Amino acid sequence: MLRSSTIVQSVTGVCYNHMSWFHSIPRNFRFSYPSRNNPSLLSNSAIITWKRKAKSNSNRSGMGTFTTRALAQPLKNADELIDSVETFIFDCDGVIWKGDSLIEGVPQTLDMLRSKGKRLVFVTNNSTKSRKQYGKKFETLGLDVSEEEIFASSFATAAYLKSIDFPKDKKVYVIGEDGILKELELAGYQYLGGPEDGGKKIELKPGYLMEHDKNVGAVVVGFDRYFNYYKVQYGTLCIRENPGCLFIATNRDAVTHLTDAQEWAGGGSMVSAISGSTQREPLVVGKPSTFMMDYLANKFGISKSQICMVGDRLDTDILFGQNGGCKTLLVLSGVTTLAMLQSPNNAIQPDFYTNKISDFLSLKAAPV
Fold it and tell me: Beta strand 216-221 with 246-249: parallel, antiparallel or unpaired?
């Protein structure tokens, strides 16, 4: 018999490492390390918890539990959704733009929301640019967006390292592009790798041993157009041989929009290569990890129930909003099609869906 319920599950274990971190991918693992606020934990142990909370229908039997979520509804009354929240968080690729092309109606939509006093925040998993560089892209596209309103996974990486008091005498090896380097530099962290290692090659010969910096305390992997075998091996050595070395992913997106003509392999392909060679799963600081949501809520003093997350991806944007307890709106202007949303194989259902964000301008309640 189906009944409406709230499901909460948790599993606890112990992990040994010398640094604090959490990992929130779709399974919602959360790692908490001993700190000044939690002195009761052993100095070299971490408590691992897994929690999932969702309003759902459930069917319990001796064989286990399954949950279902109400199917997403087409957005019919935009004003009702707009009036119900204080803040809109927008993904960028596939929502605001595709490649270097602005999606139709975006400027007018953002202007309308600002005129209604809504706070706008732009969150992207793309780590190739810093916040400052993204500010210039918005400006080039004719959008008036401040640096304080932009949160890229490159920034999230540096913010995360700060949040765990990552030692400034440790180095970060970067498999990624300039955006990560700039944010690490602004945060005062030493780094190596990045585009500079894109031209390096390994000359394999009998007895060859590749050296690596023993002082690397974290390997960060993001989208990298200069990805090569040298970087794979160097990052692998750091993670496998440097005690306590963190493996951080900016995101695990399968595809990205480098141009508006087609989809391109995303940062997840680079992350999977390192995961495969190290046999380790990364901690993810970009969507759908709750790190950026928690950071934004704390920074702006926002109640998460007063946020609507707008995105084009189910497994990152919509899950990001759901993990954070926000309202969610899927737009069909990017990766996800209506067929994908309504597929019986899809378990992620947003609250609403619509074609593009400019539908906010035209979708009104039907006259009574």
Answer: parallel
Provide the token pair at 120: 């706008």
Q: Which sequence positions are flagged as catalytic?
A: 86
Rounded Cα–Cα distance for residues 59 and 61 (Å): 7
- Round to whole Å and give the CA distance between 251 and 24: 11
54-72 pLDDT tens trace: 344 434 333 343 345 689 9
Closest-CA residue to 128 (of 96, 104, 93): 93
Q: How far apart are CA 219 and CA 153, in angstroms?
A: 15
**C-beta separation of 229 from 202 below 8 A:** yes
- Whole-Å CA distances, 192 to 170, 180, 294: 11, 11, 29
**HSE (CB half, 13 Å, CA atoms) of 207?**
0
- Please report which confidence band the pLDDT of residue 177 belongs to, taking 50, 70 and 90 as the band edges: very high
Crossing angle between the packed helical segments 267-278 and 229-241, to the nearest 10 degrees? 50
Give the residues across from 219 on adjacent strands.
173, 247
Q: Please report which helix (H) or strand (E) contains residue 7, including its range.
A: strand 3-16
